[in-house]
Amino acid sequence: MAVIAIDRQGDVTTMNPAAEVITGYQRHELVGQPYSMLFDNTQFYSPVLDTLEHGTEHVALEISFPGRDRTIELSVTTSRIHNTHGEMIGALVIFSDLTARKRNPAPHGASRNASPHWVS
User: Fold this and answer.
1) Domain spanning 1-34+56-61+75-103: which CATH class is it, in words?
2) First to last CA, the chain
3) Which residue from 35, 65, 81, 100 lies 20 to 30 Å from 48 (Cα-Cα)?
């Protein structure tokens, strides 16, 4: 699973190696940058903005993300991050690449969860 954390101001604070692989961006390129500038006008940005501004959490939302060298089909889950005092300090985006599965759907009757593939 890929993870990107965004602070209350909307800046990227961290990301894991799976997020680098899926997005095509290196950690040093994104950390400290406004999330909206990097992903402006994409469906990928909208759920995060909604979570930061309104607290709406999205679970397994399927979207198309225009990566550096290809469009990527993603399953995206967003959630607010709170400190120990309960104050909202940012948002977390957890996502996985669905591109291969969407290109090669499971045969009729086969379980999609029979052999999960996790990126870590």
Assistant:
1) alpha beta
2) 6
3) 100
